[in-house]
Amino acid sequence: xxxxxxxxxxxxxxxxxxxxxxxxxxxxxxxxxxxxxxxxxxxxxxxxxxxxxxxxxxxxxxxxxxxxxxxxxxxxxxxxxxxxxxxxxxxxxxxx
Length: 96
What we know:
Elements: H1 2-39, E1 46-49, E2 54-60, E3 65-71, E4 74-79, E5 83-88
Antiparallel strand pairs: 1-2, 1-5, 2-3, 3-4
């Protein structure tokens, strides 16, 4: 009977393993990459928000927000996690 119980649960275990490797694991990696990108945003970067607005980061705030200049003299505050992409990165500042 023990062999029969294992045989019944084997398809369920295989389905879970396939779901993990095809769905869960890639999603976690994508989330981790996005979080790293958001944490690496700095002043001068050209960013795209999830709403499709393209602008240049003017100021990175401590409270999880960035100030983005979308036109000359027009600045908006955007929550960091809503940044979809960083188009061009500025060079990191050299430590003196």
